[in-house]
Amino acid sequence: MLRLALGVLVAIVVSAPAVSAQSVVLEIRPRVGDTLSIRMDQLVEMTGTTRGDTARSHAMETAVFTRAVAQRRLTDGTIVLGIADSVVMFPRVQGGAPRTQRLGGKSTQMLIQQNGAVDLLPNESNSEDLRELFGQLPAMMPDDPIVVRGKWTREMPVPLRGDIHGTGWVRTTFTFDSLSKSREIAYITLNGLLSHERPRDEAGERDANGTITGTIQLNRRLGWITDSKMTIVLESVVLNAAAGRKPNASDRMKVRTKIVQRVRATAK
Question: How much is the pTM?
């Protein structure tokens, strides 16, 4: 009996590395005909501090409700119809009531590649709201099959505050942490750095650096990210001095921006 138990233990130990070393495909590939209901919750907190002054804070919390309908499979991705339903804004003051903005089911088509990159398809009816909700998103999934505990890196430009001069760079490392027993859910973590340099202009001089951390749950059966949590912390210095005057210490403001975002999706 002892010999049998030892034999089973040895078999488990020997076979475990082979299982964990098996490559897995991680991709965004929704099934044609599926409709996914998506909720994005976001909290933005900004704190500004100048020398000799108290910190001033501002916060905004929103929830965005959208749908994604997989329409057609292509060799380079999937055509998906994005539908915008509503945005709810939650006041950060006691006693304030949430305010809902109905978006009327505005829709646009987009191409979602297997690596997660999103491109809006040309359409004259695409409004600014739709571009903001479904606009270009960078690739996050690896280009090739990967083993558990494997890593990959993405580096991409990102616009900051919608300012064409305010473009930063994010370098993010993703780790494929584990796979559920059913092999259906892939658990991924990410850590990255954001750097930003802005030239001097009429609005002043601004420089910022930050971090991004988060977790992702990819449902491989649905071919979609069903749960993700991201935290971005951006430290910046804003210099506002009147034209022709030499800046002093009171003109320099330290600004800390924290963005916490969670996105959840369910299939109907």
Answer: 0.80
